[in-house]
Amino acid sequence: MRYCPRISHKQSTIDVKVDLAEMDITAAESKATYRQIKDWVKENYGIKTRNEYIAHVKEKHGIIKRENSRPSQNPDYVRRDCPEGHWKPIEEALKYFQMI
């Protein structure tokens, strides 16, 4: 349970309690966005990676995966697994952002 600082406005005072266990987000998910991970990999390894590769590595490390908000409209679409050349850089990025 985290307590937020007291908020005062004029004569009114509100105390706020936030139970982090009830929030629908894990600590790992709150660390870095896919864009930040992709930028880190590009800067440190010089390769462009894909969101689906990052999702594959996160899935293998047990980081909770959410449903894609924009799934492919193509019924024949098959997600590509992360190739060997991208696996280590993505893992290093996840370690850098303290996600694994």
3D architecture notes:
This protein has 100 residues and is α+β, with helices and mostly antiparallel strands. It has one domain. 35% of the residues lie in helices and 10% in strands. The protein is built from 3 helices and 4 strands; from the N terminus they run E-E-E-E-H-H-H. The chain has helices spanning 34-45, 51-60, 84-96; strands spanning 2-3, 7-9, 12-14, 17-18. The strands form 2 sheets. It has a two-stranded antiparallel sheet with strand order 1-4. A two-stranded antiparallel sheet has the order 2-3. A hairpin with a 2-residue loop joins strand 2 (7-9) and strand 3 (12-14). Helix 1 (34-45) packs across helix 3 and helix 2 (51-60) crosses helix 3 (84-96). The chain is elongated and about 60 Å long. The mean pLDDT is 82.
* Number of separate structural domains: 1
Instruction: Please give the share of residues in helix.
Output: 25-40%
Order of strands, widest sheet:
1-4
Estimated structural class: alpha+beta
Q: What's the helix-strand series? A: EEEEHHH
Shape, per Cα inertia axes: elongated
Unreliable spans are none
Distance between the termini: 23 Å
Mean pLDDT: 82
Biggest sheet descriptor: 2 strands, antiparallel
Alpha carbon gyration radius: 19 Å
* Percentage of residues in strands: 5-15%
Work out the oligomeric state of the chains in this entry. Answer: single chain
Number of strands: 4
Count of alpha/pi helices = 3
